[in-house]
Amino acid sequence: MGVSFQKQSAIEGQLVIKVGETDFNAAYQNKLKEYAKKANFKGFRPGKVPVSVVQRMVGQSLKAEEIFKVVEKEINDYIKDNELTLVGRPLPAETEADKKIDWNEQKDFEFTYDIATVPSFGVAVSKKLSFTNYKIVPSQEKITEIHESMVKRYGSQEHVEEVGASDVVKGNVKKVASEEEDKLNLWLEKLKAAAQKEFIGKKIKDVVRFDVQKLFAKDEALIAQFFGVSKEEAKEINGEYDFEITSITRYNDAEVNQEYYDKLFGPDKVSTDKEYKAEIANNVSGSYASNAEYLLFSEIRKQLLAESKVEISENFLKRWIMEANPEAKLDEIEKDIAKYVDEYKWSLIRNKIIDDNKLEASVEEVKNDAFNKVVRQYMGGAEINDEMRTMFGSYIDKYLKEENGKNYMAHLENVLASKVMDYLKENVSLKEAEVSTEEFEKIVEKTL
């Protein structure tokens, strides 16, 4: 038995594994005996099948199984002992497909595997790298916009007999000269003032005839929303329609008082207009915080990919992806290969940061990450009492064991990702910059 490495380039090579009869025969013979004890072959009593019969019937597959156990162990030991960093896993060389093996008579075997090695590299994290860490401060216009949305959301509604400028009109809508009819809703406040006049003052059972393109000012998004279709389908909608009014709903803004404040933020947390607007601003900043964090991470990641000279075999990566995803198509992989390469390089950089800095995630940290996710999922961020905290806590252990431990590994990765990000923020130069929500959205659109 032996393993040899044949280097073909700085990033590709082959492992040749030689396996002799003494390497697998003892395990193979034991496997035959075990199988004979459990075998249920026609003409023999259960557990009384002769080993020779088992060998004749299933010997080839059992022998191959034991041989490849040896091969796998030898490959893993060689990679570990020689501290090789690989792209994916070793793959059988293409010549293996044409190899003729006599599993019955052959005693010595040789298998060749292609591998792609990753040369050692350094991660260029330093204070010389400078990035902008954005803090989102909403403009007064944004705060006003949110306020107006909130008073409508927490306001009251009533059914009225005559249409006003901000009412929701429900009715039967059909194209002129057509028999097909739909029940649709129209939010008048989304229309321009001239279009609103078509409906203002109208009453239940009145019929309004309108040109769809004029009413919505050729706005495909509004047309799509009104008819409940895609924007592409909305492009084809035109002509005159009749709208028979069946219901008129008026939404009244909530009165801004202590009851309103308590309903939004909890008892006595806000009591003045200044505190109210400050709370809105804080909520907006908080809602954008994860976006700002992601933008910062993306910029650091991009820079480290450029600065850290990670070399991998693109051809082997394509092949490994195809092996791992049999349904994948080569042309689709090739189209996105630059993204695959960057993703794989980043995984190598990330793992090196974890190893070099001995970053670890404790079981308790993994449980806390899972707990927070489950509570957000079921409670939507609402506060929970001690009884519910205990209930969710008892569920977490079971949840983390599900999917054969995949849930645990997913949360382990989340914790490690956070620790990597914390390490990066501590070891590069960050400059704080306050921007409005509108400015930040433009920055994101330009950057990502």
Unreliable spans: none
Number of domains: 3
* Strands, total number: 11
Chain-averaged pLDDT: 93
CATH architecture of the largest domain: Orthogonal Bundle
* CATH class bucket of the largest domain: Mainly Alpha
**CATH topology assignment of the largest domain:** Trigger factor, domain 2
Structure annotation, total helices: 16
Largest sheet: 5 strands, antiparallel
Strand percentage, roughly? Answer: 15-25%
Structural class of the secondary structure composition?
Answer: alpha+beta
Order of helices and strands: EEHHEEEHEEEHEHHHEHHHHHHHHEH
End-to-end C-alpha gap: 52 Å
Radius of gyration: 34 Å
Q: Helical proportion?
A: 40-55%
Which of globular, elongated, flat, extended, rod-shaped describes the shape?
elongated
Fill in the keyword field for this structure.
Chitinase A, domain 3, alpha+beta, 11 strands, 16 helices, 3 domains, Alpha-Beta Plaits, 448 residues, Trigger factor, domain 2, single chain, 51% helix, five-stranded antiparallel sheet, four-stranded antiparallel sheet
What does this structure look like?
The chain is α+β, with helices and mostly antiparallel strands. It folds into three domains: about 1-115, Trigger factor ribosome-binding domain (Alpha-Beta Plaits, 2-Layer Sandwich); about 155-250, Roll (Chitinase A, domain 3), CATH 3.10.50; about 285-445, Trigger factor, domain 2 (Orthogonal Bundle), CATH 1.10.3120. The protein is about 50% helix and about 15% strand. The protein is built from 16 helices and eleven strands. Strands 6, 7, 8, 9 and 10 form a five-stranded antiparallel beta sheet that branches. A four-stranded antiparallel beta sheet has the order 1-2-4-3. A two-stranded parallel sheet has the order 5-11. Strand 1 (about 1-5) and strand 2 form a beta hairpin. The longest helix has about 35 residues, at about 275-305. It is elongated.
